[in-house]
Each structure stands twice: as structure tokens, then as C-alpha cells.
Amino acid sequence: MSDDTLSDLLRTVRLTGAVFFDMDVAAPWSKEQPAGAEIASSVLPGVQHLISFHAVTEGSCYGGIVGTDPVHLDAGDVIVFPHGDGHVMSSAPELTPSMDRNAYRIPASQLPMTIKLEGDPKRRTRIICGFLGCDVRPFNPLISALPRVLHVRDGNGGGWLGNFMRVALTESQTKRSGGESVLARMSELMFVEAVRRHLESLPPEQTGWLAGLRDPQVARALALLHGRPGFGWTLPALAREAGLSRSALAERFTHLIGHPPIQYLANWRMQVAAGLLVRGDKVASVALEVGYDSEAAFSRAFKKLIGRSPRTWRAEQGLAETGARSAAQEASRSRVVAVGSANHGRRALRRRGRDGARA
Predict the structure, then answer these.
(1) How far apart are CA 109 and CA 335, in angstroms?
(2) Which of 83, 123, 242, 347 sits between 20 and 30 A of 219, alpha carbons compared?
């Protein structure tokens, strides 16, 4: 059993990343990005929830949710919108933003796309912009524990976030083979680092799932529930392992996490089960895997929480997965065509050059 509950959660909710834009802009400029729910099917087809992030690699700018006061961002800063809010990135807060919804479609060219906006060359800013997808249904306690805006500073740029930005900038400029995969994995790691920085900055009185990870006994209980979700946990057994009395664990766990331990376990079991169902496991085997003695009992619990039977849920998610694969395959074919056309054009130019030289 691993004690790394955060990593376990991120695996189970299928965190995935992509980097779409390398923005090279000069003031004045202002861009509005739609809410994640509006563009998720175009950006990362098949994901339940879309998170946006922006990493400033050079210069400075402002970023914030539409209708709220923005925060000032310097080189080395990352801003994340965990709840998928529509937001504005700009060179100054008072500017009216523009929006291009067609920009948020899977491009034919290799990612990331470069966006250049000309202006004052002395007020130039470089930003790496990307997205993260994850499951929020049936149960993702991390997203609800994060603020609507997550602003992380890297200080002198020598930390992990600074390294991410340097690699991301290099990959976006050189477009080497495998660059999209490198950027996707690094964006996931960047998000984890941003969450860890946020966790470390929480005040002592903070409650929520992340605050629970900071409490030794509650963190131990969470690790046990995540490590063995199919075990027949009872409050006395869990309290004994966590080193607290039953009443003390129940009170502390509920205060920090927002659910009593056994209710949390029931919710987490359904999240694990949902992933196994999407993977194609039989309902009866999933029921046993997450601690139910019978398929009927599991199906009742699953439908009570999610509103659908396990088989209906799997069918719906299967359709979403099929649609996502089709969109990805179409984008891949478009990229092959685009690259082939570009190569054909270069060969034609070379032939004309040789013919002209012979003439």
C-alpha cells in the first residue's frame, strides 16, 4: 500500500495534459478564454472536466476570472483555473478582451501553436498556455478543495516550475519528435507541483481534502482507504490503524474532509469502480474489487450515488471514449496531410530551383 494519496487520486481521476499555445505578445493585448465546459470537447475530447493554466516565461501580464480583479503575473509565475472558469489574460486590466472560439480546436499542425501579437517591442511577454483534463464524477475531492484561481510563484526561477518553463519553451520552439507527449506529461507534473505549493501554503485553520493530507492521523486514514478500498473497513478498525479513538477520528476526519470516514470510503469506491467499468471489467468483478458481496448491492449503491446503473454508465462513457478517439484520429490524419503537403511544397521548390539552375 502506498501512502501517496494525492498520486493515487490523480491516477484514479485520470489526469491528462496538453499544451496548445505558445504566446509571443507585445502590449497592448487582451485575450478572453471561454469556460472549460464550452471548449472541452474541442480541446481534450472525452474528458469530463477541463482545467486551464498559463505559465509566464518572459515579461509580465495579468490574469483572472471574467468579472473579477486580475492578479499580476511575472516571469516564473503560473496561474491555474482548477474549476474551469472563463478568464482573461492581458497586458493591462482595463483593456477590452477579444475572443476567438475557433482557436480552441484540435489543430492540424504539431502542438503547440504559436500566437504572435505585435505591439510595443519593449513590453513583450511570452506565455505557455495549456489544459488539463480529469474526471470529476462520481467523486473527485481534490477539485472542490482547490481555489478558483491558483497562482504560484517560482521565486528566482531555479525551482521545478522554472525548469518546466524552460523545457516547455524549448519544446515549443524546436518542435522535435515526441514534443507533444513531453509537453503533456510536463504539464501534468507542473499541476502536481502547483497543488503541492498550494498545500504547503494553507493556513493552520484551513479545512478540505488537502488540509486532511497535512493532518497525520487523517492522512493515515485516507491512505488506508485509498490503498485498500475493497477492504471491509469499519470505524473502529480504521481508528485503530490511524492511532485515534473512534470518536476522535470521526470528528477530525469529518471536520477536515467534509464527510465521515465510511461515507468517504463509499464515495471513493464508486470512483474506483467507475474507472474499472470504463476499462471494460465485468460488473460482478468490479463489485468484488470495491468491497461489495454481491453485484446487486453494488449496483444499488452505484445508482444511488450516480443516478445510473453501472452498465448504463459504462455505455455512456464508452460512447464518449469512442468520440474522443475519433476526434484524435481525425486530428492526427490532418496533421499527416499538413506535413505531407508542406514536404511536397518544399520538394517542388527544390525542383524548380534545380531546373532554374540548369536553364
Answers:
(1) 5
(2) 83
d(CA 207, CA 317): 33
What is the count of structural domains for the chain?
1
Q: For 98-141, how does the pLDDT look when each residue is reduced to its tens digit (9 = 90+)?
A: 887 777 776 655 566 778 878 888 889 999 899 999 999 999 99
Range of the domain at 61: 5-98+106-201
CA gap 61, 99 in Å, rounded: 17
pTM, two decimals, is 0.84
Give the neighbor-by-neighbor strand order of the sheet with 60-65.
30-33, 87-90, 60-65, 71-74
- Domain assignment present for residue 158? The answer is yes
Render pLDDT for 61-72 as a digit per residue (tens, 0 to 9). 999 999 999 999
Is the separation of the CB atoms in 62 and 118 below 8 Å?
A: no
| Helix (H) or strand (E) segment spanning residue 208 | none
278 within some domain: no
Phi, psi of 53 (to 5 degrees): -145, 155
